Structures are given as structure tokens and as C-alpha cells.
Amino acid sequence: GRMKFQSSELYLKSEDEMALLFGEQRQALHNTLQIAERCQVEIDFSQYYLPYFAVPEGYTADAYLEELCYQGAHRRYGDELSEEVKNRLSYELGVIKKMGYSAYFLIVWDFINFARQQGIPVGPGRGSAAGSLVAYSLAITNLDPLRYDLLFERFLNPERVS
How many domains does the chain have? Predict the structure, then answer.
């Protein structure tokens, strides 16, 4: 079964469609246009802006990510982690930390957890992220990259910035 939303109404409606739905509230529809015209935003696309992720007291984003990864790896692989799992986690975490992406992984982990808690469908993983043991350990993805010989470097490569 393919994931489907329960409604076909999940799109931005035209002015005419909104008038049909909310014709009695014409002033409210007009007000939305006035509000939109007042919004003046300039976004500087020359740099990245990531949301702030609050880690528990006593942790850095790097340390918290590492702890969550090892907890997740134990849930996935059992009490005794193989050398392959430990080495791969260590390597991936090193790359993630070096590239400054620890907070990003925590943010993705947080919203995937939120979606699951709310009953929002979450896929098993897509694209090159499936090659990350960190993502698998955090349950961001549900494809074991070791079992399927997936390459982490297709996802994050310290030699290239993407």
C-alpha cells in the first residue's frame, strides 16, 4: 500500500475557490490580501540558516547526537555492537561533526519523532540518506545501510559541500 493523504484538498486554492468556500466572509478574504501586501521579507540566500535545537543541559549538539545514535544502535542491533557498527558510527559521526551538521540531524530526528507521535505517515527513507547509519540509528530512516551495502559518502561527503 502506498502512503496517501485522506483529503484531496491539500493545495493552495485560487481566489475564486476561496470565495466559493467563504463567500459570507468576503471582508476576511480581503483582509488576507492586505496582510500579505504588508509583509516585506528579504532572505539572504548567500548563507545557511538552521533552526536552533535545544539540547539537554550539559550536552553539546555533537555529544547529544552521539549519545542518541548509540542508544538507537543498541535498539537496532542489540546489546553488543559489532566492530562494523561501531566503526561506521564513529566514522559517520566524525564527518557530521566536522561538517557542523549535528544540530541538523537532531532537528530532523525531532520532527520525524513528532510526526510519528501525531500519527503522520513517515516513509522508510528516501534518496542517499538511506546510506547513513546515523540516520538509521536515530530511526530517521528504516533501511539498514550495512545490510544493503549502502554508501554513506553518497549522502555526506566531507570532500564536497552540497
Answer: 2
Stretch (H or E) spanning 116: helix 102-117
Same domain assignment for residues 85 and 137: yes
pLDDT in tens, 119-145: 999 988 888 889 999 999 999 999 999
Q: What is the mean pLDDT of the chain?
A: 92
User: What amino acid occupies position 60?
Assistant: T
Residues 115, 80 share a domain: yes
Would you put residue 56 in left (φ > 0), alpha (ψ -120 to 50) or beta? beta
With vertex at residue 53, the alpha carbon angle to CA 52 and CA 57, rounded to the nearest 5 degrees, is 125
Question: In this structure, what C-alpha cell is assigned to residue 76?
Answer: 537496532
Please tell me whether residues 136 and 73 are part of one structural domain.
Answer: yes
Q: For the chain, how long is the longest CA-to-CA vector?
A: 67
Domain of 77?
50-161
CB atoms within 10 A of CB 59: 14
Give the model confidence (pLDDT) of 87-98 as tens digits. 999 999 999 999
Q: Are 112 and 122 in contact (CB under 8 A)?
A: yes
